[in-house]
Please model this.
Amino acid sequence: MTASSREASRDITIGNATVAPGQSQLVELPFGRLPTQTILNVPVIVINGRRDGPRLWLSAAIHGDELNGVEIIRRVAERVDAAKLRGAILATPIVNVLGFLQQDRYLPDRRDLNRSFPGSPRGALASQLADLFMREVVARCSYGIDLHTGSHHRTNLPQIRANLDDPETERCARAFGAPAIVHSATRDGSLREAATERGNTVLLYEAGEALRFNEESIRTGVVGVLRVLSALGMRRGRPGGKRAPAIVRRSQWVRARREGMLRLAVAPGDRVRKRANLGFVSNALGDTQPIKLTAPFDGVVLGAALNPLVHRGEAVVHLGAVEEELGD
Ligand SMILES: [Zn+2]
Model:
């Protein structure tokens, strides 16, 4: 296709479908079969704006048990009108379809999809799924937002994780307006890393816990995605909001120094001073002196354990050092 014919036709052809400008369509990307021969598809909501503009992907349930993002995408898709949109949104509410069906973080072969990018068509199942997402979705876009929740019986304060050393990523991260922005270098094999290497500007949103809907996390996510669309000129609306996010460049997990039952004194979002009490770990029968958990520095609680049963050395409170406080 020449540059001029690409200008002329802004149809999006994906899977077996072609979505014209001004149209929204649910497209099924074929992804093999279950052992029962049931056909397996990865659904993508394509919202092709009437007018030209940036293309952005949204992904959720890369970890199959992380459901807040599925609901965030449903609500965003409901609120974005293709007739008024500039550019396009390719939203994949359930990337890890197999993990989602099993209510499990991983694929059936126990592989972590978010360590399998960019993937390969001849690799393990996770690698094939990563490859499909990269080819069909990421390759068509220049921006992306990957939606996650806490894992392993932990919950997260709604937060953006992004590489703040890149100015455009930082601009989008601030526009999202979550209560905290955590600077993080990408990890090997993650979607964020693979898409960034392809030239995409990528945000990762972490909020709430697995296998639950957390209304505050969902609302913050919906508003955040819409604000990023405004910041990119894809929809009307004022980018940025009244929220004053804390910028965190250094964080640490506080660990239980003994095994037993955890009673936390803090919750995600709480601000604590150095040496403040974060909670206690005692033996299940209460016949020993409880051990106190203390804050190693002034900070904001980014995440916390939900399961009171802890082993020695288990990470129970994620504390971020606040580097910068943004005013309204
Ligand atoms: Zn995740």
